[in-house]
Amino acid sequence: MVLLNCDPDDMEGTLGLIEELTTNAREMQQQVLKEILTTNLKTEYLNGFLGEFDDAGGKWRDHVVAFKKHVPIVEYDQVSPYIERLANGDRSTIISSQPITELLTSSGTSGGQPKMMPSTADELDRKTFMYNVLVAVMNKYVKGLDEGKGMYLLFIKPEISTPSGLMARPVLTSYYKSKNFRNRKSNKYNACTSPDEAILCLDSKQSMYCQLLCGLIQRDQVLRAGAVFASAFLRAIKFLEDNWSELCLNVRTGELSDWITDQSCRESVRKILNGPNSRLADAISSECSKGWEGIVRRLWPRTKYVDVIVTGSMAQYIPTLKFYTGGLPLLSTMYASSECYFGINLTPLSAPEDVCYTLLPNMAYFEFLPVDMTHHHGEEDDKDSNQSCNGYGGGVIQKPVELVDVEIGGYYELIVTTFTGLYRYRVGDILLVTGFHNSAPQFRFIHRRNVVLSIDTEKTNEDDLLHAVTQAKILILEPLGIRLTDYTSFADSSSIPGHYVLFFELDAVDTNAKVMEQCCEVVEAELDAVYRRCRNRDKSIGALEIRVVEKGSFDVLMDFCVSNGSSVNQYKTPRYIKSEEVVCVLEEKVVGRFFSNNVPNWEQQPRNMHPT
Ligand code: AMP
Questions:
Q1: What spacing in Å lies between the alpha carbon of 159 and ligand 1's midpoint?
Q2: Does 445 sit in the ligand 1 pocket, CB within 6 Å?
Q3: How many DSSP H helices and E strands does the chain contain?
Q4: Which terminal Cβ of the chain has fewer Cβ within 10 Å, N or C?
Q5: Does ligand 1 have an atom closer than 6 angstroms to the CB of 336?
Q6: What ranges do the domains of the chain cover?
Q7: 12: pLDDT strictly greater than 80
């Protein structure tokens, strides 16, 4: 079975394993596909496409040819009926011969609800393998990581039980609750300041408070700090900014605040608090009183780097992170998803703009749809290229290529066939090949197909935005005879948490604040469930803002874009803006700023489900 064991204590052995995997990437990928197909050929899904090849017997090549010819490249909507059946208790071997043990809720949505990805027991070991490989890579580049601890701020989210009893939960919640995660402590490189009980506390405020407190108490031992994504790390820093005096008081008195009511959290923090410590409280208080620039470096002076993903949509947080971390290296170490974990950064100290990920060829079978980036004009999405590579559904124009056959400089959309029942599944990520490590390609994450706005883990595409804006137009503006002449948007990450900003140009004599606030609220109510959850339960997105610009502003925007190379004939108002320069063009025309005063409702239960 292609499930490689890896001892995180054995750096030489693990580095050797990486060389072996990447040198034999083609063979490894063939072995992975063979294992997935032979194990799952009898499943309803694969049998539906490959049934007649069932008797190919030892002719393995025939299976591969048939797989590529007959198994379609799919998106979530095509697999969701099978997943719904699993969620509803159908125990037949629908997509996987291995039992599906849980459903992983992705931050991508379908029909407004989070997508659910199947998972099996073995998959936890595959994830652990990747984390273990990373330990060796980090030790290669940063010495002495076993001489202290990592202050990793990690969180879980509530789980939902499906009618079948299968849990639906985010991939990291699943991992942190697994024995694989709890057993990590046996490795000396995995020592961390947060007690598992604090990480596993469902109340995110109590969890955050306790983890920060433990990080502060053990500040002299901290060698690295981090969270999974940049947005989460910044939220923690903001929380520290708002709560440092209470945290100091707890350190000074040795008593944990009463509002921490989670008993296992209290107990675990009490062991670390270990009595009053006024010297430490003074030191923390003195640093926090000096202001926030470089606070991470000052509070945790031995920190060598900050481990947070700053690629993709998280790149917007780099300037703010630099401010708070005092220029500590920002390391993006891993590229993963709910579908499966993909790969790691083999040169983790590279600057954020140079980060590339090597997909590990034993994690899944990878294919790549070439994407024609000549249709991309910076601010626009890749709808054109989607049409030209929409798999075998809308007529084949581009054929996918295998992992080792991608070309340097080529843009591709990632397709995975996993050990857990996804076959030729379009992940939706667009990647650029930057080079090779042995025969395994290395990829820069470019963006997610169609996504125009993202602050935390939510992914809002152009259609979602259009739908929400249209609802505000129909429900609020049109009944008052106000016409929305044009709009665009950007993700404002300068505030913590960041928030969506929409620029509206209106055909109205003047704007009424109440009306515009209602527009903000309708837009938020109409955005998808993950946006509303981040805004409502997680508080990881701030109130949506509409900035009304004076009449004629979008003509000025067009003139600006045309003078910067857009063709007049083909000019379309960009529905989202990434460049600060373009934001400034509209910013100068703003006549009013309005915010949503309500948090949108967040429906906790997807259809047919109830919380545990
Ligand atoms: P989810 O399935 O909700 O965990 O989201 C997975 C998605 O997050 C991926 O498909 C990517 O779009 C994004 N993602 C994960 N890791 C990275 C990374 N290292 N850099 C940029 N984007 C990432």
A1: 20
A2: yes
A3: 21, 23
A4: N
A5: yes
A6: 11-121+336-449, 123-158+175-335, 452-595
A7: yes
Sheet holding 341-344, edge to edge: 334-336, 341-344, 357-359, 440-448, 425-437, 411-417, 365-370, 401-402
Distance (angstroms) between ligand 1 centre and the Cα of 458 equals: 11
pLDDT tens-digit readout, 271-323: 999 899 999 999 999 999 999 999 999 999 999 999 999 998 888 889 899 99
Ligand 1 centroid to residue 141 C-alpha, Å: 24
3 contacts: CB under 8 Å, gap ≥ 6: 122, 125, 126, 129, 362
Residue tagged 């629908």 (tokens): 94
Neighbours of 55 (CB within 10 A): 8
Confidence of residue 231 (pLDDT cuts 50, 70, 90): confident
pTM for the predicted model, two decimal places:
0.85
Query: Beta partners for 368?
Result: 401, 414
Residues forming a β-bridge with 192: 150
Radius of gyration of the chain (CA): 25
Q: Are 476 and 61 in contact (CB under 8 A)?
A: no
- CA–CA separation, 167 and 612 (whole Å): 9
The phi, psi pair for 156, rounded to 5°, reads: -115, 165
Alpha-carbon span 559 to 601, nearest angstrom:
40
Ligand 1: residue of 157, 169, 307, 335 to mutate (most ligand atoms within 8 A of CB) is: 335
Any bridge partners for residue 414, and if so which? 368
CB atoms within 10 A of CB 46: 26
Which of 16-30, 53-67, 101-115, 170-184 is least confident?
53-67
Give the sign of the dihedral formed by CA 323, CA 325, CA 327, CA 332: negative
Residue 314 CA: nearest ligand 1 atom is 21
The model's confidence at residue 3, banded by pLDDT at 50, 70 and 90, is low
Contacts of 143 (CB under 8 A, 6+ apart): none
Distance CA 445, CA 359 (A): 12
Task: Enumerate residues 6+ apart whose C-beta is below 8 A from 316.
Answer: 491, 493, 498
Sign of the alpha-carbon torsion through 582, 587, 589, 594: positive
d(CA 43, CA 337): 24
To test the ligand 1 pocket, which listed residue (337, 360, 366, 444) has its Cβ within 8 A of the most ligand atoms?
Answer: 337
- Residues 6 or more apart in contact with residue 133 via CB below 8 angstroms: 6, 14, 17, 18, 344, 360
106 lines ligand 1 (CB under 6 A): yes
